[in-house]
Amino acid sequence: MTFKLGVSWPQYCQSNSHNPRNPGIATTNFEVTLFVASTAPDQVIAREETAMFKWTGNGESVARKRVLDMLPKTAIGIEIGVWKGDFSARILKSAQPKILHLVDPWLVSDAADKSSDAWYGTDKMSQSGMDDICTHVAKRFSSEILTGQVAIHRADSVTALGAMEPASVDYVYVDGDHAYESVVSDLAQAFRVTKANGLICCDDYLLGAWWKDGVVRAVHEMLVAERVTVEFKEETQIVLKKLGPKLAE
């Protein structure tokens, strides 16, 4: 089984002035490289294809907008990795969930591979700064929290999703710590709590950033190990559908 995977960012997309999430260049299209590989880990084939990385007028990835459109309406969802709540707000507006669980520990990391490059690395953020962001998110969604539409879980996915019933949510959007071990853990918890035919969505499905092949490898291992199928793949977004139990032969 082969399919298109992971995007390799051009160098100019890494700088602050050319970051594709910068609203100042919201309508710019970026050329990226798509690699083709098998589902087996570490088997990236050398063939490359170029494609355009497209952005909407409000700074949102076109592919990410399509993922939003795929989410079932008035359902129960989870976002792992909330940061300042910008995408949380887009989920609320687009999918109008019955309940949206926002999961994020809001902790800085001094790990060698994260401290200088990750948004939550100690070179870029202090713990007090993360505490302020968490407080900001709680205030931002205070009305939705009061009505029960939003629930904030300041914890990692093992703690937050581990307390939820199996097969109890309709979709999970995974955008937390991108290190391989963390993505494996997030996906395992997402698979456990997602209903049959529910969606497990991953952001930053790409190669070459500080997390290297962490997200891609974790996703591929899930494709091999679990009953999931690729429902959507475009740019840095991938959506998996959790299949129902295998029928007895």
Key traits:
249 residues; alpha/beta; seven-stranded mixed β-sheet; four-stranded mixed β-sheet; 11 strands; globular; disordered N terminus
Secondary structure elements and pairings:
Elements: E1 2-8, E2 30-38, E3 44-53, H1 62-70, E4 76-80, H2 86-95, E5 99-103, H3 127-140, H4 142-147, E6 150-153, H5 157-162, E7 169-174, H6 180-193, E8 194-202, E9 206-207, H7 214-225, E10 228-234, E11 237-242
Parallel strand pairs: 1-9, 4-5, 4-7, 5-6, 7-8
Antiparallel strand pairs: 1-2, 2-3, 8-11, 10-11
Helix pairs in contact: 6-7
Let me know the number of strands. 11
Please trace the helix and strand order, writing H or E for each element: EEEHEHEHHEHEHEEHEE
Helices, by number, come to 7
| Morphology call | globular
Class by SSE composition: alpha/beta
What kind of sheet is the major sheet?
A: 7 strands, mixed
- Residue windows where pLDDT falls under 50 for at least 5 positions: 1-53
Mean pLDDT over the residues: 81
How much helix, percentage-wise, in residues?
25-40%
- CA-based gyration radius: 18 Å
Strand order of the largest sheet: 6-5-4-7-8-11-10
First-last Cα distance: 23 Å
Beta strand %: 25-35%
How would you describe this structure to a colleague?
There is one protein chain. The protein has 249 residues and is α/β, with parallel strands linked by helices. Helices cover 29% and strands 28% of the residues. The radius of gyration is 18 Å and the shape is globular. The chain starts with a strand and ends in a 7-residue tail after the last strand. The relative contact order is 0.16. The model is unreliable at 1-53 (pLDDT under 50).
